[in-house]
Write a structure and sequence with these properties.
With about 160 residues, this protein is an alpha/beta fold. It contains six helices and four strands, in the order αβαβαβααβα.
Length: about 160
């Protein structure tokens, strides 16, 4: 396939898929942050916007909360890929009545004061850790079913 013959959207998609294939062909350290799901479950739930079938067979280290996330990175270094969930404790889960209204869900979530950090807290720590140690951020995926939380993580890591 000649990439120059593709339209802009197809070219970008082709480029992204090739980059992801390259990432998955290496001997990666991959970190999966989620309090409940295992990687295969998240990949099968179609919670990603990128072509996740490339990652199903990858080996993943699973951490379930902020403490485990930080400890793993301090012990093993920044992984090549991190897949983030946002809601890491029962208190993080938005009440069902707000699930279909992004703005009300966002308003409810912004009022919460959590004792256990969310995936966004992990993303903040990662960004600061990489900045403080002159490290590049890894390839980031977000598999959270919480759209407000997903946006928070993406915004933190795009700064």
């Amino acid at each position: 396939m000649n990439i120059q013959k593709l339209g802009a959207e197809e070219s970008e998609k082709f480029s992204t898929i090739n980059q992801l294939k390259y990432i998955t062909m290496r001997n990666n350290k991959n970190l999966f942050l989620d309090d409940k799901r295992e990687p295969r479950d998240a990949f099968n739930e179609n919670l990603y916007s990128n072509p996740v079938h490339l990652f199903v067979e990858e080996e993943w280290e699973v951490v379930k909360n902020y403490k485990e996330f930080v400890q793993w990175i301090l012990e093993f270094g920044v992984p090549d890929i991190i897949s983030f969930d946002h809601d890491l404790a029962p208190s993080h889960y938005t009440p069902k009545k707000y699930w279909t209204d992004y703005e009300k869900s966002k308003e409810w979530q912004n009022k919460q004061k959590h004792t256990e950090p969310t995936g966004a807290g992990c993303a903040l720590w990662l960004r600061k850790h990489c900045e403080d140690n002159n490290l590049e951020l890894p390839y980031i995926m977000v598999h959270s079913a919480n759209p407000v939380g997903r946006d928070k993580i993406i915004n933190i890591l795009q700064k």
